[in-house]
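Run log // design_07
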């Protein structure tokens, strides 16, 4: 999947989120990049290929009255690591993009990785 197809898939995935989520999300940009920057990998203590997505911003529960006028929060989806992960695990790329996007949006709403894993394990 080339970069344009990946970006289009990410846009379609975002647009297809449940309406109640879309109405609750404000001041967030979804960015697709081939790979995370070196400084991001260092900050996250990750190896190349390990980071599929990233949320950078102020989670909703942490926002106070001083939040106004802030730059948009960012959700990054990393194309090459996602494609490599899907190839190695036999996973559909669109499904993986949705999973990573929902995970990063969970951080926007203030959920920890552990809380999101528990939610995903529910029947």
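design_07 sequence
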């Amino acid at each position: 999947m080339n970069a344009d197809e990946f970006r289009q898939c990410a846009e379609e995935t975002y647009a297809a989120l449940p309406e109640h989520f879309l109405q609750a999300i404000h001041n967030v940009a979804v960015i697709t990049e081939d790979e995370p920057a070196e400084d991001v990998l260092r900050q996250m203590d990750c190896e190349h290929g390990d980071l599929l997505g990233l949320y950078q911003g102020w989670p909703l529960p942490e926002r106070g009255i001083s939040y106004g006028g802030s730059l948009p929060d960012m959700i990054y989806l990393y194309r090459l690591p996602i494609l490599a992960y899907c190839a190695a695990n036999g996973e559909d790329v669109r499904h993986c993009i949705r999973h990573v996007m929902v995970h990063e949006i969970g951080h926007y709403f203030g959920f920890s990785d552990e809380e999101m894993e528990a939610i995903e394990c529910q029947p």
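DSSP finds six helices and three strands in the chain.
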